[in-house]
Amino acid sequence: MAALYVVFARVSQVFAIEPGNVTPFWIPSGLMVALALYRGPVIWPGVFLGAFGGNIWAYIQFDSPAGVLAAVASASFNGVGDVLSTVVMAQFIVRLTGSCYPFTAPRPFVIYALFAVLLGPFISAVFGITGMVLFGHLESAYWWAAVYTWFVGDGVGALVFGPLILSWLFPTQKKYAHRIWVFLVVNAVVAVNACAFFGLIDVPQVLAYGAMVLIPGAFYLVINYEQRLAFTAQALLAFVAVSSIWLNVGPLVSDSQTQSLLQLQLYLAVSSFMVYVIAVVGYERESRLALLESQKSDLEHLYRKDQLTGLWNRYRLSEFIQRELALFKRDLRPFGVMLIDVDDFKLLNDSHGHLAGDTVLVELARLLETHTRESDLLGRWGGEEFVVVVHHCNKSSLQSLGQKICERVAAEAFTGSFAITVSIGATLVQANDTELTLLDRADEALYASKARGKNQITLA
Fold first, then answer.
1. Which residues are catalytic, by number?
2. What DSSP letter does each residue of 195-240 carry, written as one string?
3. What gap in Å lies between CA 371 and CA 366, rounded to an integer?
4. At 192, is the secondary structure helix, strand, or coil?
5. What is d(CA 38, CA 49) in angstroms, rounded to the nearest whole number?
6. CB neighbours (10 Å) of residue 411?
7. C-alpha neighbours within 13 Å on the C-beta side of residue 360
8. Confidence class of residue 40 from pLDDT cuts 50, 70 and 90?
């Protein structure tokens, strides 16, 4: 952890300017708050040692013992400030949001912004600059200006790099199959346009126009794709903007280097905040849509399934019959409807209770499921009646299926040693049939089976 801090501190200090040796963005602030959210407060010694080592590297002077002690003291102030600004702030974020990934909705993101981007960097700036003033690395007249630029640099670092690092540590939405190609193309478009806008490259007019035409599509994907794309694109844009100031080119450059730094920091803060708000709102929208889709599926299951047996209910059976009728009218594809009724079911209920009757119905439903095809639809019509819509059949196959069901049910030993039989009425679809005429014929055939002695199938 300390080594990571020192490495990225040196990267950040490449862009540092006077007074106070401050930078446009401080990468370790974003890195450490992200890792503190990811790993917890256990990382605090690494944060302290990293801040301490990074500042020793910047300020130590070996020409006198006093210079060494001053650097150690100043670096210690900075280490304490960084622990408070990242590790402690991360714990506040987790406690207030209940999550280690605070970019799922506007409220957690606002909490992240308050603690990691505003309060934390301010604490770090006060500790760091105060230590520099107390131990002779900065004149007291520059205290407020240095605190301000330090605060903004740390805040921009936490705003740009904290979400970026967390988005790669935690899984986010995955909406497209070819994610790597989307990622590379969008970032290439962002890079070309950013470099051209900030004056880092001169591109041919055709390429410039082509890249501009792709901006709306890239913007759409940044909004609708997983968050790591938006966060990575914004970090890339930030590096391009900082490089333009470093090379003294582009629209943010002014006569004063300090003014250029402040303009750059303001641009990075505003652009990052806007992009991340859009990404967070998009994430919340996708999460809500996924939740609604799940709830819709649950509701459909509830209103289309029979609560007792788990089979399709009358509503779903009616839908399926209507679909089969439409297919028959279009393709003349025959199908059959089979109405199954448990013989003497009222006697079973009266003799053994409704609980025993319900148990028999559930077991009968499982038995019927084993004798229907995936292309058929089995459901409970109501009470002790079941319906099978037999897809693509003829008279012979329909008769054979009904006979097999009668035999298997009669041979089954149900819980409680109950022996039951079923009567079946069946019919094939005919020209000009409706759902009502089909079911009426099946019902008449069912009564014929009952009248002829039960435990048999009658084909209308």
1. 384
2. HHHTTS----HHHHHHHHHHHHHHHHHHHHS-HHHHHHHHHHHHHH
3. 9
4. helix
5. 19
6. 8
7. 30
8. very high
CA distance 13 to 251: 23
The token duo for 283 is 């994430």
315 CB-near residues (< 8 Å, 6+ apart): 303, 304
Question: What are the strands, taking DSSP E only, across 324-376?
Answer: 335-342
Cβ neighbour number for residue 154 with a 10 Å cutoff: 34
Nearest to 103 by CA among 283, 240, 269: 283
Torsion 232-238-240-243 (CA) sign: negative
What the block records as the tokens of 456 is: 């048999």
Q: Which pair of tokens denotes residue 298? A: 């649950």
- Yes or no: say if 403 and 438 are a contact pair by the CB < 8 Å rule: no
Question: Whole-angstrom Cα distance, residue 7 to residue 31?
Answer: 11
Residues 6+ apart with CB under 8 A from 270: none
For residue 289 the two structure tokens come to 């849509």
C-alpha 393/C-alpha 337 separation (Å) is 10
pTM for the predicted model, two decimal places: 0.65
The DSSP code for 87 is I
Cβ partners under 8 Å of residue 117, min gap 6: 155, 158, 159, 162
Distance, C-alpha 133 to centroid of its chain: 47
**Phi (first) and psi of residue 201, to 5 degrees:** -140, 150
Q: Report CA-CA distances (Å) from 138 to 9, 21, 131, 236.
A: 19, 9, 9, 32
Pairing verdict, β 335-342 and 377-382: unpaired
Q: Can you read off the two tokens belonging to residue 38?
A: 């990811």
- C-alpha 197/C-alpha 110 separation (Å) is 30
CA-CA distance, 112 to 90, in Å (whole number)?
Answer: 8
Residues in the chain: 460
pLDDT for 360 equals 94
Instruction: For 169-225, write each residue's pLDDT tens digit.
Output: 887 655 555 577 778 888 888 888 888 888 888 767 666 666 666 667 666 766 667
